[in-house]
Every structure is written in C-alpha cells, then in structure tokens.
Amino acid sequence: MAMAALRREGRRLAPLISPQSLTALRSSLISEEQIPQGVRSISTQVVRNRMKSVKNIQKITKAMKMVAASKLRAIQTRAENSRGLWQPFIALLGDTPSVDVKKNVIITVSSDKGLCGGINSTAVKISRAVHKLNSGPDKETKYVVLGEKAKAQLVRDSKKDIEIILTELQKNPLNYTQVSVIADDILKNVEFDALRIVFNKFQSVVSFLPTMSTILSPEIVERETESGGKLGELDSYEVEGGETKSEILQNLAEFQFSCVLFNAVLENACSEQGARMSAMDSSSRNAGDMLDRLTLTYNRTRQASITTELIEIISGASALEG
Amino acid sequence: MFRRATTLLGRPLLAARARRFSTDLPAAPTADSQFVEAWNKVVPNLDPPRTPLAFMTPRPATPSSIPSKLTVNFMLPYSSEKSGKEVGFEIELLRRIFALADLLEDKEKAWNRGLIFSFDVDMVIIPATTGQMGVLPGHVATIAELKPGILSVHSENEVTKYFVSSGFAFIHANSVADIVAVEAVPVDQIDSSLVQKGLQEFTQKLNSATTDLEKAEAQIGIDVHSALNAALSG
Fold first, then answer.
1. Which pick of A173, B65, B226, B230 has the fewest CB atoms within 10 Å?
2. Both ends of chain B: CA-CA distance in Å?
3. Burial (CB count <10 Å: 0-12, 13-18, 19+), residue B209
4. What's the gap in Å between the CA of B3 and the closest CA on chain A?
5. Residue B40 phi, psi (nearest 5)
6. Which Pfam family, giving just one, matches this sequence (chain B) (predicted)?
7. Could you report the per-residue pLDDT of A31-75, keeping only the tens digit for each?
8. Pairwise CB contact (< 8 Å): B32 & A95
9. pLDDT at B225 > cutoff 60
10. Cβ-Cβ contacts under 8 Å for A213 (sequence gap 6 or more)
C-alpha cells in the first residue's frame, strides 16, 4: 500500500526531485517497512520462535508424565490392596444395580486437576445416563460430586440436582480415615434409598472401566429381603450383636459405604494418574512430531535462501563476464 | 485309622475340581442382565458401566458335606500411615483406629497391607459385640459386628492372634468366613507400656471431658485400650 502510494507520489514529484535523492529516500523507507520486490530472503525468525516454544512444551509434558508415573506407582499398590475390601459385601448383599427405588443419589467421583484424558468426562457421562435411567415422575435423583472437574461439567446443566460438592480430596494422600469422614458427611446430609457410586476402575495405564457400585439403605435392604428378591438369601443369616436387626443393617450399610467409597476413590485416583501419564506421553510424542516438521521447514527455508543467494551471485557474475 | 478319612474322601472331589476345560467355566454372571437391558433402552449409545459383580472372584457353592477346613478371608483397607493430625472425625470406627495406631511401635510393621489374606484353618475365634464367637467349618450363616478384641486363628497346632479394632464378620453357609476389619495387628507387636500410658491418658480425658462428644471419644479410647490390655495379659 505504502509502496504504491510512494511510487505514485514519486511519479508526480519526479521532475522536482533528483533520482539519487529518491533512491535514498526509498531505501530508508524500505528497511523499516517492507522487503522490496525481487529480494527473496525469507525470515526464519518466526519458525525459530515456534520451535523454541514447542520444545519447551515438550519438556513440560515430559516432566508431567514422569510425575504422573511416579505418583501412579505409589497409588496403584494402594488401589490394588483396597480391592479386597468390598468383596465381602457383594458376597453377602449381592450386586443390585437394577434395584428400583425412589431416592437415588449418584456419587460422581472425579479428579481435581485436568490434563488427564477422558476419565472425568466419562464419569460425568455415565452419571448423567444413570440419572436418566433412574428418573421418573415420582422419583428423586440427586448428585453428590467429588472433585473439581465433574463439578465444572455438572454444574452447567444440572445445578439444581447437585446436593453436595466436595473437592480437594487428594490434597493429602488418600487414606481410609479421610474417606470415612467424607462418607460420614454424605450419609448425614443426604437422604437416600440407594447410593450409586460412579467411578473409573483402574485396569491398566491405558484402560479404565467406568464402574457403578450400588449401596442400598438399610430400609431397602430389609424390604428386598422380605420380598425375597435378590437379597432373599440374607434372611438365612443369623445376626449377632446389636439390639435389633435394623441397627446392625444400619451399621453394615454405613461400613459398606465407607469401604466401597474408599476403593472407588483410590481406583479413580489411580486411573487419573494413569490417564495423565498416557495423555502426557502422547502429547510429548506429538510435540516431537511437530518439532520434526518445523525443523524440516526451517532447514528447507534456510537452504532455499542460500540457494537463491548463490544463484544471484552466479548469475550476476556470468552477466558481467558475458 | 480314620484320621485320614476326610482327606481321602476329599481327594476325588479336589481332582474333579482340578480337571477343568476352558469350555466348562463356571456360569457365574458378570453383569446384571436386567440392568444392562434397562440401560440399553434408555442410553443406547453408551456402554453400560461395569458393576462390582464383574470384578468379583466367584465364591464356591455350598458343599453337601461339611468340609474339614474353614476358609477365612481377612480383608483390610490400606490403613493410613498414621495421619492422626486431622480433627473433626466423628465415626466411632475412626476413634478406634487412632487409639490403636498410637500404640504401634513401628507403624510400618502394622499389618495393614489391605490385601485379602485367605487361609484354610480349623477354627477362628471372633470378637463379636455379643462376646467371643468360635467359628468352625459348617458354622451357621451369621453376620456379626466386631468389637475391639483378639481374633485368633487356629490352624493345625498353631494359633495366631491378631488384635482387631472393629469391623464386621460374615460367615457364609459354604464354610467361608469373611472378616472385614479396619485395622489388625499381630498381638506380639503391641507395646504394653504404651497401652498402659494410653489407658491412663484416656481415663484422664474421660474425667475432664465436658461435652458428650468428648466423653464418647474418651470412652472409646478406654474401651480399645482395656481390650488391648486384656489381650496382652490374657
């Protein structure tokens, strides 16, 4: 634009200004504004900057992968060790995901931090589906959200259904005490007939299984036992201790909840680290690929400018000779 | 003469159990079909989540005759490396954990790996809230709440004693006993001087307690410590 204007102006002013002064003016303007036509040196500055930033990103993702890997190792043994804890309850009370009750509470277990692949959105998706599955005209389904990420996703469309939000679970290493406190908190503040804990069960570093555990309230356990459904076998058990059977069932349900939640939280934390590890691994790999491509472009550009310069020199020389 | 009769009788059964083909796997269901069906109707584009049943190790069926050994599954959470600094916990169980955790000389030694410890034993004595309960193979199916006390495992001529803080014991009809405890420690790892000290401390606390909560806390501490004391002396 400026060049064209200048040329136009120049043409108008040509009789007034001597040609020498015009070229001087032109070169002083050009060095600031634009590369003149015919000169084909290409700036490599942009590409170099880009390469530098990609390299830095790669360094960061590699470090994050290492951190996730070491955290995973610590938490994996704990998660695996806690797997025995819920089995007796399933052996005794059975697995009842299809139980039909009025008040459902969905406990979505998620992570506080992002950059860990799709585990949080999977948990949220499953929770929403469970919500849909258990909603009806006379039913009431609520959420209890553990973790920042599920909160961010669930608040958007089902804010009114969220009962409790608990975050910063993993500030300290997870332990049974802490989880029991959370379990107690939930039991005290939420009315439920069935608790459904949605979490990602750790299978390997690259795979997690979305899982739902169901915990029934003592009243529902009693009802199901009497009606002789899935829990019909429970009637054959003698109950020791406690004043009444319902008291024992109450204790049992609370203990079961804390045990299952403990396992769920550990499994989810383990899946999170695994997912983060694989996500960071693939992003370092992507950064490497990008860096390769950029290096190629950079080198090609550099070579092109060298070649251009050589051609110019040679053709200049041959013109002089000829 | 008949001492080996049970093992001889058991042998063909064991052999039959060992000879298994991949085709005759136990037909244990890994998912609740009713649930999967309902799920697919409501959310057809999403796979149904797994349920705990899918990860459950199948339990043996109730044998027709009483087996010679009782299978005891002992489950513990990975209990904490003593994180007793927190306040505000109210579950009775937790008090018991802390009261116990303070007593361990070496926290690392705590028998708290949280794995399933499964053994075939002759008898276990369970500290139920109603009193000590001996469990032999073929025991009637029972649900028992545990109180702080000694869990002794008798196998052959060995007796192993553990102090458990609290939990539940389920005895199934198939001679399998599941014991879920919050914490368990072999009795020989408990330091008696620390027990005495703790007992005094909690007695003092009970005397100076003003609120109901404090009283209850101190009472639990005393309960655990006196149970420990009894375990050590007895």
1. B65
2. 37
3. middle
4. 32
5. -65, -25
6. ATP-synt_DE_N
7. 444 555 655 556 788 889 999 999 999 999 999 999 999 999 988
8. yes
9. yes
10. A86, A196, A197, A199, A260, A264, B51, B52
Other CB atoms within 10 Å distance of the CB of residue A165: 15
Interface touch A125/B46, C-beta < 8 Å? yes
Distance from the Cα of B192 to chain A's closest Cα (Å) equals 25
What is the C-alpha separation between B202 and B99, in angstroms, rounded? Answer: 9
**Cβ-based contacts of B78 with chain A (< 8 Å):** 78, 81-82, 175-176, 266
DSSP conformation class of B61: P
ipTM confidence: 0.74
Domains contained in chain A, CATH given: 83-235+242-275 (3.40.1380.10)
- What does the block give as tokens for A188? 């005290």
CA dist A213 and A86 (Å) reads 10
Cβ separation A210–B49 shorter than 8 A: yes
CB contact under 8 A, A177 and B83: yes
Contact B184, B161 (CB under 8 A): no
Q: Is A195 exposed, middle or buried (0-12, 13-18, 19+ CB in 10 A)?
A: buried
What distance in Å separates the CA atoms of residue A109 and residue A66, rounded to the nearest whole number?
Answer: 24
Contact B160, B74 (CB under 8 A): no
Taking only the tens place, the pLDDT of each residue in A18-30 is: 444 444 444 444 4
* Chain A contact set for B72 (CB, 8 A): none
Taking the C-alpha atoms of residue A53 and residue A51, their distance in angstroms, rounded to an integer, is: 5
pLDDT score, position A40: 53
- Nearest residue to A145 (alpha-carbon basis) of A131, A166, A172: A166
Which residue matches tokens 């209850």?
B216
B203 CA to chain A: closest CA distance, Å? 24
Q: In order of start, what are the domains of chain B with their CATH numbers?
A: 70-189 (2.60.15.10)
